[in-house]
Every structure is written in structure tokens, then in C-alpha cells.
Specification:
- By secondary structure, the protein is mainly α.
- The protein has one domain.
- Helices cover 45% and strands 3% of the residues.
- The protein is built from four helices and two strands.
- Helix 1 packs across helix 3 and helix 2 packs across helix 3.
- The longest helix is centred in the N-terminal third of the chain and has 27 residues.
- The termini are far apart.
């Protein structure tokens, strides 16, 4: 991050501006993902920045509340149009190339590691805790 200000107050103001823009982008991502119920991690942080830059360069200097709402709707639609494809299901063996670790050494069999067929949310079942006897609570 490059700060152009020459005074401490200007640097302070620029840092706050960067934090506010970052927070606004995160809110935009969360609200965009909430409408069609998609994972917010699927929305690109970089694409959000590009969409925000496009909206700033095309909008007039002073924006009314109605124009702001239309701009946010346009941003949301733009992000949903540029949604990347779903992630592939992947798994990698926990191995190392050189044996200087507690993990196994990488062998030829690790190149054809079996890939998952279901996402973790479907494959993992979270069960309630089992009943605890009184002697376990001492």
C-alpha cells in the first residue's frame, strides 16, 4: 500500500480510507452472496475491487440515495455475472519430498491419490456429544 500523504494526519486519514474501502468491499461480498445463498468465498475480492472502480468511474461526483441504491444493485448483478465456477473437490496426501519431517516420504502411489466424491459439508457428520457418566466429570 502506497501512502501519498506527507503529513501524519494525512497518513492517518489514508489508512482509515483504506480500511473503510476494505470493509465496504467485504459487506458488498456478504450481501451479494446472501441473496442467491452462495458461499461468500466464491466471490472474488479482486473482482469486487474492479467492479467498484468501474462504478466510481461511471458515476457522477455527487450521488443521491436513489443513485446509490441503483449503483449497489448494479454492483451486485455485476459480481454475480462474474461468479467463478464452483471449486473442484480435491485432496492431497500429507507427505513431504524429503524425509526431514514426521510425515511420510512422497512415493509414486501418492500421485494417484483418491479424490473425494462429496464436499466436506456432506461427507462429515457432526454428532451431539455422548452422555457423560458422573465419573468423567471429576
Amino acid at each position: 500500500m502506497v501512502l501519498a500523504s506527507k503529513t501524519p494526519d494525512g497518513v492517518h486519514q489514508q489508512i482509515w480510507a483504506h480500511l473503510l474501502v476494505h470493509r465496504a468491499r467485504r459487506i458488498l461480498i456478504c450481501r451479494t452472496a446472501a441473496a442467491p445463498a452462495i458461499d461468500p468465498d466464491r466471490l472474488s475480492f479482486t473482482e469486487t475491487l474492479r467492479a467498484a472502480r468501474r462504478s466510481v468511474t461511471t458515476s457522477p461526483g455527487v450521488v443521491s440515495p436513489e443513485q446509490l441504491v441503483t449503483t449497489l444493485i448494479r454492483l451486485r448483478d455485476d459480481l454475480l455475472d462474474r461468479l467463478p465456477p464452483p471449486w473442484r473437490l480435491r485432496a492431497q496426501p500429507r507427505v513431504v519430498k524429503r524425509k526431514m519431517s514426521n510425515y511420510q516420504l512422497k512415493r509414486a502411489g501418492h500421485h494417484t491419490w483418491p479424490q473425494p466424491t462429496r464436499p466436506p459439508t456432506e461427507a462429515v457428520t457432526i454428532r451431539p456429544p455422548s452422555r457423560v457418566n458422573q465419573r468423567h466429570c471429576l
